[in-house]
Amino acid sequence: MNWTPEAEAAIKKVPFFVRKRVKSRVEKEAAEQGKSVITLVEVKSTQQKFLTGMSKEVKGYQLDACFGQSGCPNRAVIDDKLLPALESMLQKENLLDFLKKNVKGELKFHHEFRVTLADCPNACSQPQIKDVGIIGAVFPVLTEEICTQCDTCVASCKEEAIHLDPADIRPIVAADHCIACGQCVRACPTGTLAAGKEGYRIQLGGKLGRRPRLARELPGIYNMTTVLDIVQSCIAVYKERSRDGERFADLMTPSLFQSIAAQYRNHKL
Fold this sequence. Notes:
About 40% of the residues lie in helices and about 15% in strands. The protein is of the alpha/beta class. The protein folds into three domains: about 1-50, Orthogonal Bundle (Helicase, Ruva Protein, domain 3); about 60-140 and about 195-269, Sulfite Reductase Hemoprotein, domain 1 (2-Layer Sandwich), CATH 3.30.413; about 140-195, 2-Layer Sandwich (Alpha-Beta Plaits), CATH 3.30.70. The chain is globular and about 70 Å long. The termini are far apart.
């Protein structure tokens, strides 16, 4: 489907968290009318229908990913089973019925519980502003393979977490600067750096809106089973404490965050 420059510019003004839905609907409605080119007329027509019928579009949750199943070129570690497992869990939680019972007035997209999956710390799917953000993570470890001091790992690390010392036969990794992207592991030609702990970082309680807030990160990384358990625990808290559609971020007090962190302290990899 071809888009005119004016139509492309208009769709970019749609809030990012519903942009994919609106664009998909524009193309669907245009195809049903036998059109092969999207103009500003089609965008405005669909957008108006979308806004007036928003409550019918709300499904209770939003689940996003950056490159999804196709994979990110910077991918750290993402199990292809995680995204469908999250989708299945969110469907079973029946968040739409929960919102219908608790929200006064019409449902809107900002009422939905939001979970996002990012393949790497570049975080294209914006986990920092979602109720639960999940980021693939790989911590490097040193092997017995001889380092040739080629400097490739240093060049690959944007955090400057790796240094080479001519007096040392292996790279020096500063753990407090490392964000577990795994780039140095892929860059190392000798195998001196290898993948150590592989799992997921978890961020909780982010949002935009009138009072934006960045999510806080739980310490450590977790396997897929624990990630699913953490998400389910957060939904349970949300259902227990949310009244009239408050976002999970509004419920994420320091004490609640510490409680969740303590609950999963022994589940870290």
